[in-house]
Amino acid sequence: MREARVAGKATFPALSPTPDTVGTSGRALPAYPRSGMHTASMPTRALHWCGVVGPVLFVVVFLVEGLLRPGYDPLRHPVSSLAIGPGGWVQSVSFLVTGALLVASAVGLRRDGIVVPVLVAVVGAGLIGAGLWTCDPINGYPPGTPPAPPRTTSGHLHDGFSALLFLGVPVACLVHAFRSLQRGAKRVAWCSAGTAVAFFAFFVLAGMGFAQSPTLMPYGGLMQRAALVVGFAWLAALALAQLRAESTQSPQRPPPGTR
């Protein structure tokens, strides 16, 4: 590094030529950032896109499947019931793919410390487990089954893995709200905290409906869908915010010919 002086003006640092900044003619070339600095963040951006695509895919699949499945009432029946019977493989695959995408997304959430990425990965693992084990019939679906049939091992495992989702999302929202408040991002903090409250409230109401509450049983599926839409919208927004932050921080190479 040496000082370059312009007549009548203040000095400023100038880069000394180095072997990789000197052309074949011996003339110093502009010191641009190495291309690797720009491309190094490509895998991270891909991971963030996983966090955007996964939640959107999951919501679209259960909304469409709920409307097309014969004998299925999306207002009454849980999303997991779509994995039962013929055609249930679609919802099962949706569980697995979305879970894998969220686990991948968690790897890229470096700006949120350790706790939030771990919780997002836990949510993804819960979805994968819920896709591997099918839930028990409930609330009269499939048609001809009683409202509360005997439980099975597969049903218990499905509920256990689903708990990772329904507990992991609100806790992740609260942790993110706390960290955002520490950074002075009050609006983001309130949005995350509000998401946690709304998600957990809808989850409790859905649970009461699936537990055969006379008032809420006809709307258990609706309450669960409201919780999932709110929670998965927050997950997608989290990944999208990280994606935008990474994009603005990526060094850009000046156009050719710029001096």
Task: Write structural notes for this entry.
The structure is a single chain. The chain has 259 residues and is an all-alpha fold. It has one domain. It has seven helices and two strands, in the order E-E-H-H-H-H-H-H-H. It has a two-stranded antiparallel sheet. A hairpin with a 7-residue loop joins strand 1 and strand 2. Helix 2 packs antiparallel against helix 3 and helix 6 runs antiparallel to helix 7. The longest helix has 30 residues. 35% of the residues are buried.
What attributes does this structure have?
single chain, 259 residues, mainly alpha, two-stranded antiparallel ribbon, 7 helices, 2 strands, globular, disordered N terminus
